Amino acid sequence: MFGPLQENIPYQFKQVKLLIEALTHSSYANEHLEGEGHNERLEFLGDAVLELCISEILFLRFTCSREGLLTSMRSKLVNQETLADIARTLELDKYLRLGKGEESQGGRGRDALLSDAMESLLGAIFLDGGFDAVRQVIEILFADVLPEQGERKRAKDAKSLLQELTQKIFKERPVYTLTRSEGPEHAKVFEVRLDCPDKKIFIAEGSSLKRAEQTAAKMALDYFFQTDQSRPYVNHAFPEKR
After folding, report:
1. Which of 47, 102, 128, 213 is catalytic?
2. Model confidence over 201-241: pLDDT tens digits?
3. Which residues have a Cβ under 8 Å from the Cβ of 10 and sit 6 or more positions away?
């Protein structure tokens, strides 16, 4: 039942009951398990494990970076949005055990619920395989979002620029939805739908959810660049070369 998920993680549980507990929301436990066996305790543990692992990875990778910069980099990695994006990449949402009420209210797609489940999963891996195992998993799962330079200020990416642009023009954020993921683990393709506040839709593919979202954002920026009403904002983000 959980074979594809364990390949996506990638980690094979020796104690599958820990994986099941990590995927069990309190709403399901309240309906079926007399309120026991849900993932909130694992979430507490996973949160601490994740922060420690990311701290160690950054500490070892950026040997010349000061505490303030390391703290800033960590906060951009250990947050709800990043964890939810990784959870969707793993297709964790498909395996969650939710109560009827939570399911009917769209809980399977909520960032808060997905990020909590992601932390629970990491807590379960820590209990099942130890620190080295969970650290290796975290380094693999966060590979696409780990910064490459410590001291140099990184340029804003397309997704960040698009969000700033739509908030200035429409006072709303763009919405990204994972519409498809298929293929073997070493060559998986993710398809993302981007809905802009002006109802314009963009579809893009990538080898990870992040890359697909970035591609869709670039397509949207190209579209806005050709739109007169957005030109002052786009020109500010992408000044013309002289």
Report:
1. 47
2. 999 999 888 899 999 999 998 888 776 544 444 444 444 43
3. 137, 140, 185
Look-up of token digits 């904002």: 233
User: SS3 helix, strand, coil % of the chain, rounded to 5?
Assistant: 60, 10, 30
pLDDT tens for each residue of the chain, 242 residues long: 677 888 888 899 999 999 999 999 999 998 888 878 899 999 999 999 999 999 999 999 998 888 988 998 999 899 999 999 999 988 898 899 989 988 888 888 889 999 999 999 999 999 999 999 999 999 999 988 888 765 444 456 889 889 888 888 888 999 999 999 888 766 789 999 999 999 999 999 998 888 999 999 999 988 887 765 444 444 444 444 33
Nearest CA to 10 out of 136, 123, 124 is that of 136
The two three-digit tokens of residue 64, written as one number: 């010349």
The Cα–Cα gap between 204 and 63 comes to 37
Catalytic residue among 116, 119, 128, 213: 119
**Residue 82 is inside which H or E element, if any?**
helix 80-89
3-state secondary structure of 57: helix
**Stretch (H or E) spanning 115:** helix 111-129
- Beta-bridge partners for 175: 195
Name the one residue in this structure whose structure tokens are 């964790």.
Answer: 92
In this structure, the dihedral spanned by the alpha carbons of residues 118, 121, 123 and 126, taken in order and rounded to 10 degrees, is: -130
pTM equals 0.63
Is 47 part of the annotated catalytic residue set?
A: yes
Please calculate the CA angle 10-178-44 and round it to the nearest 5 degrees.
Answer: 50
Neighbours of 95 (CB within 10 A): 19
